[in-house]
Amino acid sequence: MMGRMKSLRTIVLCLLLGLGGVYAWMQTPSYSVYHIQQALKTRNYETFTQYVDIDSVVSYALEDLGQSVPDIPQPQDTPPDSLAGLLHRGLKSLTRDVQDLAKAGVTFAVQQAFHNSDLTLPQIPTVALIGTVIGGETREDIRYFSVPLDSGEEIEIGLRSTPEGRWQVVRVTNVQTLMKAVFGE
Predict the structure, then answer these.
(1) From 25's CA, which of 34, 55, 68, 129 has a CA 20 to 30 Å away?
(2) Cα angle value 157/160/164 (rounded, 5°)
(3) How do residues 95-122 score in pLDDT, each as one tens digit?
(4) Could you give the residue ranges of the DSSP H alpha helices within the chain?
């Protein structure tokens, strides 16, 4: 009887530790990368967008490529309804529109790539899952992990924790290298 109780306690303890481990893993960037990996394999666009903030990735990519929206200061002592004020507002609107068009275009292209089975989606190597558990560094509230590409070069994937506790990809560095890897030279 005593041996049976000890075995039962051991089983319950192992179960609790296992469940605790799974719960803890669900709070990590690795869990999100796993879901992105599965979404790419199964072509599940909805799951992909839960774990990848496409607008943020595009904004950072535009910034990295030198196409960020410039901060256009309002000319001093210029009335808003003057020609200079109107030009200022027009330039600010135009730069926002260009960025919005880029985001919409990329979102559409990604969505079409998921739905077009003739296109090959990039795959995340399993080693990236391990790398997100044991590696990486945090800069400006974004957790970065290196991902090797077939070309031998690396990109960094940046994830940020959302208020819901999910980690989302918000940045990809070395965008030009990634574009070469995805679309060819």
Answers:
(1) 55
(2) 140
(3) 666 777 878 888 888 888 888 888 777 7
(4) 2-25, 29-42, 45-51, 54-64, 83-115, 126-134, 175-183
